[in-house]
Amino acid sequence: xxxxxxxxxxxxxxxxxxxxxxxxxxxxxxxxxxxxxxxxxxxxxxxxxxxxxxxxxxxxxxxxxxxxxxxxxxxxxxxxxxxxxxxxxxxxxxxxxxxxxxxxxxxxxxxxxxxxxxxxxxxxxxxxxxxxxxxxxxxxxxxxxxxxxxxxxxxxxxxxxxxxxxxxxxxxxxxxxxxxxxxxxxxxxxxxxxxxxxxxxxxxxxxxxxxxxxxxxxxxxxxxxxxxxxxxxxxxxxxxxxxxxxxxxxxxxxxxxxxxxxxxxxxxxxxxxxxxxxxxxxxxxxxxxxxxxxxxxxxxxxxxxxxxxxxxxxxxxxxxxxxxxxxxxxxxxxxxxxxxxxxxxxxxxxxxxxxxxxxxxxxxxxxxxx
Length: 370
Hints:
The protein is of the alpha/beta class. The chain contains twelve helices and 14 strands.
């Protein structure tokens, strides 16, 4: 198959907030994607009308240059060019950095124009009929889309959100160990500076430094798992009452990668061998779907005492894999371990792309008649 024919068959994609760090990461991950082709780059009015290279300028945060196929593309306005974008694409990723109410209204407007919206923002995470998806953990929550469409009168459009990047490394573990009944969890996350859309060049204060506070992260880390691990009953989300989670979130001088130390009390008596076996034998609901971005395995267990390490292991399976190690007895609770995920790939852009792939495979995203 030649590249021209392959492109014709791909889904047309728009990126809202294309000049920001997550938007940039989306672009890089989608350049050679077999299913998706980015045809619209949108940002604020101050960037609209410029080429992508002109709009980004010194904000480009990745080591390599802007891809040649992208640099000369025109940037659209996320507000003023909404109708134009809707005519060009099959769905959009939303990665804009703005006021919560603004984001909510904007995403709803795009959905009302018939576009599926896969959002990396927190604005709609607690909207009652919006699913918050980690594809390997709660793909069944996509059934809420039909209810959302009915509630809002959407046709082909809808909104799906990703959870916060801080929970990506430990919620999959809680899910893998659900049969053992996790009851209480104390988690400390050690979060990279890219989680604040920063690099060491733009945030020199982080060099040789640790900041013991990240605004809003501890609340998200404690509460969002309840929705991801919850159920749908009677057309509504029922939050998981257990496990109870206490979180501390710390900014550390790493460019990418969020590490977590996790202490857990279980309802059942469980051995280290059982915990490791549950990780290695995790039944991934995506394994039979052949999604391009799905890592195999989803969770990797390291036997070594000094793994996972941020620099060595954050790019596991192209940054989409979760890793865990140092499973050992805890003197107060039952067990403790260390986990790691790549925050801007698994935790943001890559996780959004995997969610979009799942939506395509399940028939929620279709090619629109232009």
